[in-house]
Amino acid sequence: MVKRRAIDKQDDLAIKDKLPLLYKTLTPLAAERHGDLYLSDKRDFQFAGEANAIPLTCDEFAQALQHYPIVIADAKDPIPVALVGLKHGHNDHVMEDGAWRDGYYVPAFLRRFPFMLLRESASSSRNFLCGDLSSTLFSKRAEDGNALFTADGGNSKTLETVLDFCQRYETSAARTRAVMAEAQELGLIEKSTVNIARGDTKARVEGFSMISEEKMRELPDDKLASLAKRGLMTIFAAHHLSMAKFSDFGSL
Fold it and tell me: Residue 11: its pLDDT value, please?
């Protein structure tokens, strides 16, 4: 079992290099430095208002496919994303008041924000919890939310819930990386484009990849059976089914 902790006494400085999407900084959380922090219980997604693609884990595909096209971001290491807007720099699902569009699935990547678990070192199995302290979800006023730490410096129930969610997210993200790496190794990932025409709305969406159904059909039977037995075929099918959601763009 991976050990988790909310502090690391050797990490006093904010981390600002190679940050994930949407994070401006990551600071290891410690009771002695952040004992006066409170976390708002009101979610505000303005921080994601300019992101038109949000990372997904494979465990989310069944829910996400009902609302968004799931594509694979073109990168050295392929990452599945929910396409939440056609225009670069605009998220169609963040409302003016910061709420997420009612009735639409909120990706776990956004629900995890402003927290993230970081590994202590490349050779360590221990993680420590960081927070993007620039986030408006943090406050130093008790009336704004729930305390992160107890009066005696322990983790509050709120922080324990955050730790548990972050750990489950990391487990799911690791599985997703393994699935994408296998798909890449099998040569199943290829660049794709989609042309959309809805009324006066016409657009050509490119710069992403997909799992090729044609290349999947070319795989040996034993390899297809292995993928099916391990649940990967179900994941790939959800990805393909989500393409139907491209037709929703222009109707929101």
Answer: 41
Residue that is written with structure tokens 């993230």 in the block = 116
| Domain map (residue ranges) of the chain | 4-248
Query: Can you tell me the distance from the alpha carbon of 128 to that of 21, in angstroms, rounded to the nearest whole number?
Result: 19
CB atoms within 10 A of CB 155: 20
Question: Which tokens belong to 162?
Answer: 């955050």
**71: amino acid identity, one letter:** V
Other Cβ atoms within 10 Å of 173 Cβ, number: 20
Name every residue whose Cβ is closer than 8 Å to that of residue 90 and which is 6 or more positions away in sequence: 49, 50, 52
* Beta pairing, strands 115-119 & 70-73: unpaired
C-alpha span between 63 and 105 (Å, rounded):
7
Q: Which amino acid is at 168?
A: R
Burial of residue 4 (CB within 10 Å: 0-12, 13-18, 19+) is: middle
- Confirm if 172 and 111 have CB atoms less than 8 A apart: no
Given this model, what pLDDT does residue 154 score? Answer: 93
Token pair 């929703």: residue: 248
**What is the arithmetic mean of pLDDT over 64-88?**
92
Q: C-alpha distances in angstroms, 63 versus 59, 241, 248?
A: 9, 12, 16
* Cβ neighbours of 20 (radius 10 Å): 12
Kind and range of the H or E run holding 203: strand 201-211
The whole-angstrom separation of Cα 210 and Cα 119 is 30
Read off the pTM: 0.88
